């Protein structure tokens, strides 16, 4: 049978009420608060009490305990600090998936509900016992005591005395509205395992904990010298900390497992135990070399008596007796207690007092909108929880300070006008300044406000235009001020078309500004540009005033391949099947001969757009491309058949096949047949209402022409102006780095062959049919003699600082005359050359140099060098060409310079240069296709030195600027 009664407030059993009435005004109320780990939230296990089996824990519930024959009524307060109730709160939060779990708000709500229940306990109890499941004092409890004192002084004392004046028991409480300054006791359910559980050790541990708690409560003014201003009281000469050392309550399974592991790991060796036993056997008698003391049986009796007396119930009853004897406050405070500060009530008076405070502090708080005439009480109901969330106020104050500091840092460093990158940098610096002060859960919202304020400050007349240039630099002009011309503030140093004069150029924002206007402006300032012979590229000539750019699908540029001309296969040859017949009909009209070389470069990449200079496929100049005329195919076929006959050993001039290595074959036509000129098989009608918005490329419409030329081809003088011993001099080509100002010699062997007569029967060579199916062949006779040519070629790169240099290989910069070997030029002629390469100039920034010019010094021989450069950019999407139907021929014994575009643009897609050079993929930014040079027979009827004349009937004109 239980020796105590238990019930749930307020339903007190009648038999218990009768026993409590017999106590009259000697009832001492003890409140039990704190932490628990069991499912029923029971903190009474140390007192030997427990709730009924059907009891279920609930927040705000009060379970009463009374042991007959005593004068103490124990109130067990179930709060959010009990693990069972805390689990219920967490489950309730998880049932609302639409609301994200906020730990800060959850913790603040849990603490506020705990403070409300402890506040009730401090006003209806004489003694409050705080139960701790741990082995040390929790310092966060000091914060709870501070909140309790704040709530009592700032809330309860504002409305409670006034609202309690009408009640009989409340009238006796006076202005303090509580039974007394309640004495606070601390119960620790478990004692540290590593400490010895003797009387001396337990008492020392209890005294040490008491000193710590007393200093903390004194330091934070929880306990003061006056009972009227103290939240709780502490006895001066009595123990107020108790450790349950002799029985284990709510054992920690994890700690028990760790202890078992330690025992297993540090188990003493059996051999050592045997040695100890051997030593003990040598002692003359039992207990040798041990100090004399109390006999073992007396010590055991003393220990048993200590265990019997050291119980929580005896510990509590000592403080209950102080309350009954009237010396409850003696020694607690330095100032003597005022009369009427301590009240002992009977059960009925206390029950009424408890019901009043429970209704005011707990029940009504569940309805914040409760109607009341007391303004202070209404404020308590509406803002009690908010007033206790001091962390939120603290974090809000810190965030406000950080916000002011961040805004000040942003505005003080912001220039008059700046772009988004500067704005982001300033915002990052302002964020760092904010984080020096701003902390807590509200920091995220404060940072969002900081970003909004800085954004508004930036957009308030300080925002730049930020229109990106063709080199990906933003415009730095104010966005609010209208401007006709953009400016990024970036200045490049570039050379003119002829390369003699260097000038400063603004960062271009339009294709015309990048590829035409700058060079046109430099041509007026350069003394050489005004004298050179300039090749005129075909451009758009409008016939109406409202002409417009042609519309393209940026994602499907290949849809326009069939509009302007016949498609091309991988080798660049036209797939028109009717052209061979046309060749037969026009055989007498001076076909333009192709050039063939008998030794192929196996390592040259062509990407199917241009062919290397080889034995069977004509020149590396891509002689089979559209625009050379119909006779080129027939001439090429005859040259291939002629070369094959050389390999079989048939010679007409007494030379062996070994002498034909590294030779080019040029067919010399009859003079009377050349006067008619090549047929214009590629004449197309160009549009006069729509122009090509970008550069000409291999799949652009033949009927569209650009508004302006993006390329330049100029003859800057005779071949004698270049000396291979000194290289390019500064007065002729400025800005070259030392040692990188030489052209590369290219030795080409020619074999001149007379063309056969028209009536000669055509024959098909089996091997040639295998290489070029569908093409009609002719047998040609070899005639003529050999001719040796020396051509000088230079691939010039230029960086934005104006540094210029030549390349001697796709991955090597020319370092001087010693780098020029016999086969050096073949590396740049027969291989793809990268469009961008790191500049060797010494600089902290890695400037990328761009392939801008191709230097060609033509030989003094009865042949013309043909140039047909193709630049592949945009990861192979576009292959840009000169745009001429017939590739231009360079005059003899002259210095020619091909200037490449500064910016490349497709139909309506700008192709920006790469940010950095990729050594693993040097062609990623673009490349010049191998096979851009060709050789053709000189037409004596055409004087290339005269302005306005050009070899070929549809080749365009040279004019003098």
UniProtKB/TrEMBL annotation:
The keyword Lipoprotein does not apply. Keywords: Nonsense-mediated mRNA decay. Residues 603-613 have a biased composition (Polar residues). Residues 764-781 have a biased composition (Basic residues). Residues 558-613, 637-662, 669-688, 755-781 are annotated as: Disordered. Residues 568-588 have a biased composition (Acidic residues). InterPro entries: SMG8-like. Residues 643-659 have a biased composition (Low complexity). It holds the Pfam family Smg8_Smg9. Signal peptide: none annotated. GO terms for biological process: nuclear-transcribed mRNA catabolic process, nonsense-mediated decay. The keyword Transferase does not apply. Involved in nonsense-mediated decay (NMD) of mRNAs containing premature stop codons. Probable component of kinase complex containing nonC and recruited to stalled ribosomes. Belongs to the SMG8 family. This is Nonsense-mediated mRNA decay factor SMG8. It comes from Drosophila gunungcola.
């Amino acid at each position: 049978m239980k020796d105590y009664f238990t019930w749930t407030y307020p339903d007190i059993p009648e038999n218990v009420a009768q026993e409590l009435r017999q106590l009259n005004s000697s009832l001492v109320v003890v409140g039990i608060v704190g932490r628990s780990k069991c499912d029923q939230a029971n903190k009474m296990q140390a007192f030997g009490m427990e709730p009924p089996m059907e009891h279920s824990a609930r927040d705000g519930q009060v379970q009463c305990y009374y042991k007959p024959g005593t004068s103490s009524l124990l109130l067990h307060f179930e709060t959010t600090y009990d693990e069972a109730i805390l689990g219920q709160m967490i489950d309730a939060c998880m049932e609302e998936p639409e609301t994200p779990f906020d730990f800060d708000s959850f913790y603040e709500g849990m603490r506020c509900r705990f403070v409300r229940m402890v506040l009730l306990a401090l006003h209806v109890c004489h003694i409050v016992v705080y139960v701790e499941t741990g082995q040390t004092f929790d310092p966060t409890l000091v914060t709870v005591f501070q909140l309790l004192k704040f709530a009592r002084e700032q809330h309860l004392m504002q409305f409670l005395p006034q609202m309690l004046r009408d009640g009989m028991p409340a009238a006796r409480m006076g202005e303090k509205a509580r039974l007394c300054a309640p004495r606070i006791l601390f119960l620790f359910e478990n004692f540290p395992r590593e400490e010895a559980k003797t009387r001396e050790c337990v008492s020392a541990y209890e005294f040490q904990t008491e000193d710590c708690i007393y200093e903390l409560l004194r330091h934070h003014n929880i306990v003061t010298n006056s009972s009227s201003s103290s939240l709780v009281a502490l006895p001066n000469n009595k123990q107020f900390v108790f450790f349950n050392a002799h029985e284990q309550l709510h054992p920690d399974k994890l700690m028990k497992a760790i202890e078992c592991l330690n025992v297993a790991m540090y188990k003493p060796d059996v051999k050592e135990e045997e040695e100890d036993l051997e030593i003990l056997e040598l002692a003359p008698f039992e207990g040798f070399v041990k100090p004399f003391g109390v006999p073992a049986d007396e010590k055991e009796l003393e220990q048993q008596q200590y265990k019997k007396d050291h119980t929580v119930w005896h510990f509590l009853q000592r403080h209950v007796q102080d309350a009954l004897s009237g010396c409850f406050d003696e020694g607690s405070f330095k100032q003597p207690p005022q009369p009427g500060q301590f009240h002992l009530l009977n059960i009925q008076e206390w029950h009424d007092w408890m019901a009043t405070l429970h209704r005011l502090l707990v029940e009504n708080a569940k309805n914040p909108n409760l109607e009341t005439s007391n303004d202070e009480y209404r404020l308590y109901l509406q803002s009690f929880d908010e007033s206790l969330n001091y962390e939120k106020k603290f974090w809000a104050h810190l965030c406000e300070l950080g916000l002011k500091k961040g805004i000040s840092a942003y505005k003080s460093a912001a220039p008059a006008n700046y772009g988004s990158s500067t704005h982001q940098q300033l915002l990052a610096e302002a964020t760092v300044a904010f984080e020096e002060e701003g902390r807590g859960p509200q920091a995220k919202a404060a940072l969002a406000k900081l970003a909004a304020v800085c954004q508004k400050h930036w957009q308030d007349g300080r925002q730049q235009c930020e229109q990106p240039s063709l080199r990906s630099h933003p415009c730095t002009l104010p966005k609010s001020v209208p401007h006709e011309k953009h400016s990024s503030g970036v200045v490049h140093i570039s050379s003119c078309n002829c390369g003699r004069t260097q000038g400063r150029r603004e960062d271009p924002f339009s294709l015309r500004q990048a590829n035409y206007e700058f060079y046109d402006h430099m041509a007026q300032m350069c003394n050489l540009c005004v004298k050179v012979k300039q090749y005129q590229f075909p451009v758009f000539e409008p016939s109406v005033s409202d002409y417009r750019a042609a519309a393209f699908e940026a994602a499907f540029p290949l849809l326009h391949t069939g509009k302007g001309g016949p498609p091309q296969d991988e080798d660049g040859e036209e797939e028109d099947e009717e052209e061979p017949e046309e060749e037969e009909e026009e055989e007498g009209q001076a076909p333009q001969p192709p050039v063939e070389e008998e030794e192929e470069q196996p390592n040259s990449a062509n990407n199917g757009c241009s062919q290397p200079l080889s034995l069977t496929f004509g020149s590396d100049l891509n002689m089979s491309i559209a625009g050379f005329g119909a006779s080129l195919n027939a001439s090429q076929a005859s040259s291939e058949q002629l070369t094959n006959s050389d390999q079989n050993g048939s010679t007409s001039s007494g030379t062996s096949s070994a002498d034909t290595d590294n030779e080019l074959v040029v067919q010399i036509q009859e003079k009377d047949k050349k006067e008619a000129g090549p047929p214009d098989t590629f004449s197309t009608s160009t549009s006069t209402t729509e122009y090509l918005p970008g550069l000409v490329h291999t799949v652009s419409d033949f009927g569209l022409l650009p508004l302006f030329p993006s390329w330049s081809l100029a003859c800057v003088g005779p071949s004698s102006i270049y000396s291979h011993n000194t290289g390019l001099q500064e007065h002729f080509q400025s800005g070259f780095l030392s040692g990188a100002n030489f052209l590369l010699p290219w030795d080409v062997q020619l074999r001149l062959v007379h063309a056969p007569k028209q009536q000669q029967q055509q024959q098909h060579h089996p091997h040639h049919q295998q290489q070029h199916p569908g093409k009609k062949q002719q047998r040609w006779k070899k005639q003529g003699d050999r001719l040796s040519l020396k051509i000088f070629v230079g691939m010039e790169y230029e960086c934005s600082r104006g540094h210029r240099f030549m390349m001697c290989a796709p991955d090597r910069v020319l370092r001087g005359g010693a780098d020029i070997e016999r086969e050096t030029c073949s590396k740049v002629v027969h291989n793809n050359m990268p469009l961008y390469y790191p500049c060797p100039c010494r600089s902290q920034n890695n400037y990328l140099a761009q392939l801008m010019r191709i230097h060609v010094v033509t030989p003094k021989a009865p042949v013309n060098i043909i140039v047909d450069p193709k630049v592949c950019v945009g990861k192979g999407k576009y292959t840009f060409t000169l745009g001429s139907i017939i590739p231009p021929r360079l005059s003899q014994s002259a210095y020619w310079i091909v200037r490449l575009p500064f910016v490349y643009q497709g139909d309506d897609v700008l192709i920006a240069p790469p940010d950095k050079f990729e050594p693993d993929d040097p062609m990623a930014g673009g490349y010049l296709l191998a096979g851009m040079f060709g050789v053709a027979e000189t037409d004596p009827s055409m004087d290339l030195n005269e302005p306005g004349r050009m070899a070929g009937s549809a080749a365009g004109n040279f004019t003098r600027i």
